[in-house]
Design a protein that fits this description.
It is a single chain. This protein has 419 residues and is mostly beta strands. The chain has 7 helices and 23 strands. The strands form 2 sheets. Strands 1-2-3-5-6-10-11-17-18-19-20-21-22-23 form a 14-stranded antiparallel β-barrel. Helix 1 crosses helix 6 and helix 5 runs antiparallel to helix 6. It is elongated, with a radius of gyration of 24 Å. The N terminus is likely disordered.
Length: 419
């Protein structure tokens, strides 16, 4: 049925948006290249995102500046981006569609994306400031929804059958984050030992969000009953969809060559979405064999299902505990990191992370980085390099992450870094 195919295509496009998270974006291509094992190594402008106590340790730059560092991680699985790209603008053969459905099996087609842009990160002495944007997302199409998208309501056999889209959903959010932090030296030992306390404060502004979920859609050989309600930010409230403040605390101890780090991000976080900034669409389509009815008109937020509204209004950022160690010997930096988010809530990236990273700066004009980590439901590895000219560096890094829900690839570029 043409109308079902059109609806399914529109839904699939909506699913490429995603869920959300907001912490201060990392401005460091070095951290990305070391697979995020950086909380004890962060100094200067890096420290605000990882552990503000790094600002209070001696040996950091008196001044550091980073402009326009951006990147992200994305994945589509089990049917991947390159599978779809091979047929861009072309008719997809039936045998290829069948292969895709076999890959999906009894599971779902899943997409995910996390991205950030650090517009400005700056440190002067023991004070740092930063501003940027973060966004993240996920989406799921169950096998029936994927089959309807690829073959229409006749399905892969050409004979109309029943479909159930339960579990298909999409969520997406974008945040602007700005903040400042400072490090306070607490003590200096006789042999160069230092202890530092760090405090970071952030203001979070919800730029926009969207939530969509199947609400009991069912397609039979004779009838179509699609229910896919959505909640989304009203265009008149873009960049004003929610707000809150957050605080991070950290401690760092260094004896010169080795640094130990402990931080709690989001010790306090008051962010919440503003219901008055949202609209909804009922998202229904019915066809009884004779009469077709649909309702995709914009409606008040209160028209959305109560469960969807309650879930959006309950979204919070949860605390995250991170510990790390970094050791420098000559031109080689080694780092160990572990972090765990407490509870379920708005989040970017895996809930758990334990890994090791390294940076080598012994080559003229070139820094080399690599790292690996065990993460929730999987494993990630990364590598990167920096081209140094005096105090200036151009950095780039790439990563791969394998998880239960598929493989994700990442890339980050830092255009201007001065230390």
């Amino acid at each position: 049925m043409t109308i079902l195919r059109t609806l399914s295509a529109s839904t699939a496009l909506a699913l490429i948006a995603g869920t959300a998270g907001a912490q201060m974006p990392s401005a460091s291509a070095a951290a990305f290249g070391m697979a995020g094992n950086y909380s004890a190594a962060a100094r200067g402008y890096d420290a605000l995102a990882w552990n503000p106590a790094g600002l209070g340790l001696d040996g950091g730059p008196a001044f550091s500046l980073n402009l326009l560092s951006g990147g992200g991680t994305t994945g589509l699985d089990p049917v991947k981006f390159n599978d779809i790209a091979d047929y861009g603008g072309k008719i997809i053969p039936a045998n290829v569609k069948e292969q895709w459905l076999q890959k999906i099996g009894s599971g779902s087609e899943r997409g995910s994306v996390d991205g950030s842009l650090s517009i400005l990160a700056l440190s002067i002495g023991r004070i740092g400031i930063q501003g940027g944007i973060v966004a993240t997302g996920d989406a799921n199409l169950n096998q029936d929804a994927a089959e309807a998208l690829l073959f229409g309501n006749a399905g892969r056999t050409g004979t109309p059958r029943s479909f159930n889209f339960a579990g298909s959903n999409a969520n997406g959010s974008v945040f602007a984050v700005g903040g400042a932090g400072f490090g306070i030296p607490l003590s200096h030992g006789e042999h160069g030992e230092q202890l530092s306390l760090g405090v970071g404060g952030h203001y979070i502004r919800g730029i926009g969000a969207a939530r969509a979920a199947d609400a009991g859609s069912r397609v039979t050989p004779d009838t179509v009953n699609v229910q896919f309600p959505t909640i989304y930010t009203d265009t008149s409230h873009i960049a004003n969809a929610g707000s809150g403040v957050a605080m991070d605390l950290g401690l760092a101890y260094s004896n010169g060559a080795t640094t130990f780090s402990a931080a709690v991000r989001n010790v306090v976080n008051t962010f919440s979405w503003s219901p008055s900034a949202f609209k909804s669409r009922v998202g229904t389509l019915t066809f009884d064999g004779t009469t077709q009815k649909s309702d995709f008109k914009e409606a008040p937020y209160e028209s959305a299902p109560a469960a969807m509204r309650a879930a959006l209004e309950a979204e919070k950022f949860k605390p995250e505990v991170a510990v790390g160690m970094a050791h420098r010997t000559g031109s080689l930096l080694l780092a160990l990191d572990g972090s765990e988010r407490v509870g379920d809530g708005i989040a970017i990236g895996p809930k758990m992370h334990v890994g090791v990273g390294a940076e080598y700066t012994g080559l003229p004009l070139l820094s080399l980085r690599a790292g690996a980590a065990a993460v929730t439901d999987g494993f990630q590895a990364a590598g990167g390099l920096g081209i140094r000219i005096g105090s200036y560096e151009l950095g780039a890094a790439a990563s791969t992450r394998s998880r239960t829900n598929g493989q994700e690839l990442g890339l980050m570029v830092s255009l201007l870094s001065i230390r």
